[in-house]
Amino acid sequence: MSLYLFQALNGIGLGMIYFLISVGLTIIFGLLNFVNFAHGAYYLLGSYLCFTLVSLTGSFWLALVIAPVVVAMLAWVTEKTLIRRAYHLPHTFHILITLGIALIIQELSIAIWGPIGKTVAVPDALSGVISIGDFFYPKYRLFVILFTAVIALALWLLLERTRFGALVRAGSEDAQTVSLLGTHIHKLFALTFALGVGLAGLAGVLAAPIRGVHPFIGPEVLGLAFVVVVIGGMGSFSGALVGGLVVGLVQSLMTTLWPQGASLMIYGAMAVVILLRPYGLFGRA
């Protein structure tokens, strides 16, 4: 029983990281109607920035603050100089442009940090385990669960209780009307793109001490993010949260029950959702 509880908590932690990645993807698509295939590459960049900052300063907490901000700023610049010019183009162009960005980030990562994976140490304050009777669980993984839950709450408040969130939600319905009402729509687009990508960078930082860093993880993360979005429903905050937890729990529990089929069962869960609810658990037509 302790093993399954351990794996369930691991699944929740992974699921919350997947939520951070996929909610940025779904926010960008919901407002901008833009398919960002570079999302996994920005996660990769967040992980490598974490590794560099920890190596230089010895502080994981500094990396947790700085790395996502740097990734978000890079995304903001990319949106203003390149992405903005492609909004009116068909989705095939979005895919080609963002795949190009992803390849550039991946190859630059190999050129700067090398093709060999890196490890990031768990911060001293979170090393070790917490014991509850006969049950032991790593402090850092518990921190990830609690920290991402706080981020999820803050993000929900931002989207549901602020003017910015109201504009994002209204813009996802009709961006042209929001623009006609006096909103600087290009500024809103740039901030939304930076927020979504910054969340992917934050996920990369949090996952670095757990899964390490290597330059080819971007496509894997992107694939998982799309699975989460398909399960939860495109454009849905709740869908990204529930979809992330479903994928994380399935992946973690199946690692114990059927290790060879853990990845297969993720896509099996997605197939079941598509058959029953083609637009996802919380998606709209």
Automatic annotation (TrEMBL):
Cross-referenced InterPro entries: ABC_transp_permease, BCAA_transport_permease
PANTHER family on file: ABC TRANSPORTER ATP-BINDING PROTEIN, BRANCHED-CHAIN AMINO ACID TRANSPORT SYSTEM PERMEASE PROTEIN LIVH
GO terms of biological process kind: amino acid transport
Name of one Pfam family that matches: BPD_transp_2
Primary site of residence: membrane
Record keywords, A-Z: Amino-acid transport, Cell membrane, Membrane, Transmembrane, Transmembrane helix, Transport
Membrane-spanning ranges: 12-35, 41-74, 95-116, 140-159, 188-210, 222-250, 262-282
CDD domains the record matches: TM_PBP1_LivH_like (cd06582)
Localization: Cell inner membrane
GO molecular function: transmembrane transporter activity
Protein name as it appears in the record: High-affinity branched-chain amino acid transport system permease protein LivH
GO cellular component: plasma membrane
